């Protein structure tokens, strides 16, 4: 059965990370600065331990709110106002951490990605430190 270790760095060679205190505009810049363009940025502590995930979807919400575009009525007005600030730290926008290890199967990674509606999932070591990520395109290429 194929495992994450066999496929996780074929497209994205290095995971994109930010510290929890980095501002939301730093996250936006990190997502768009490289090729391939990242669809997720991982929030880590000073030891590179995974704390959370910020997806492109969260960044789109922030940008939409700043531009006055409304489309997500599930967020409270107070939460929307928090997102508007350019001084918002990454730690305030991140989702809970979701990850796999190199020993997980590709099916396990796929299940987590589908359940949590993410296109990239961080790969962590035994201490929870980010060592890479598995991209949805890597799964599409390898799974039948």
TrEMBL record:
Residues 11-74, 93-144 form the CBS domain. Keywords: CBS domain. InterPro entries: CBS_dom, CBS_dom_sf, Diverse_CBS-Domain. Gene3D superfamilies: CBS-domain (3.10.580.10). SUPFAM superfamilies: CBS-domain pair. PANTHER family: CBS DOMAIN-CONTAINING PROTEIN, CBS DOMAIN-CONTAINING PROTEIN CBSX3, MITOCHONDRIAL. This is Putative signal-transduction protein with CBS domains.
């Amino acid at each position: 059965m194929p495992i994450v270790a066999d496929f996780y760095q074929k497209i994205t060679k290095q995971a994109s990370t930010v510290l929890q205190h980095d501002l939301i505009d730093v996250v936006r810049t990190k997502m768009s600065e490289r090729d391939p363009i990242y669809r997720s940025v991982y929030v880590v502590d000073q030891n590179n331990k995974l704390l959370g995930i910020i997806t492109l979807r969260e960044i789109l919400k922030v940008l939409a709110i700043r531009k006055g575009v409304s489309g997500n009525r599930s967020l409270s007005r107070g939460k929307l106002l928090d997102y508007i600030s350019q001084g918002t730290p990454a730690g305030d926008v991140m989702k809970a951490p979701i990850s796999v290890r190199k020993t997980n199967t590709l099916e396990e990674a796929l299940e987590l990605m589908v359940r949590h509606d993410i296109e990239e999932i961080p790969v962590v070591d035994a201490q929870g430190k980010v060592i890479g990520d598995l991209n949805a395109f890597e799964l599409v290429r390898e799974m039948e």
